[in-house]
Amino acid sequence: MLRFKPNDAVFILPRYAHLYPDRSAVITGVTADPCRPFNEYTLEFADRSSAKVLEFQIIEDVLNYATLIASLVFTVGSMRSRR
User: Fold this and answer.
1) Of all helices (H) and strands (E), which one includes residue 12?
2) Domains of the chain
3) What pTM value is reported for the model?
4) Cα–Cα distance measured from residue 77 to residue 25, given in angstroms and rounded to the nearest whole number
5) Which residues contact residue 30 at a Cβ distance below 8 angstroms, ignoring those fewer than 6 apart?
6) pLDDT by residue (tens digit) across 42-74?
7) How far is residue 61's CA from residue 72's CA, in Å, rounded to a whole number?
């Protein structure tokens, strides 16, 4: 089942964003392969460049909202057990 379709706006997750020219793009093509666990999407960026990504690298980009990615940070003091 396809999670996205052509013309959907998507946001590239920060872990993978450094690999591409921008953090957001529009889907222009979909390659669904039943033998692979993730679909492949072709993206077009604002500068008209294109790239292929896998489904786990992107989420929906809702234009009216700011997308914030949470981080979980542990400090040395929080790792001690309390008695």
Assistant:
1) strand 9-12
2) 9-79 (2.30.30)
3) 0.74
4) 41
5) 2, 4, 5, 6, 39, 40, 41, 42
6) 999 999 999 999 999 998 887 666 767 777 788
7) 22
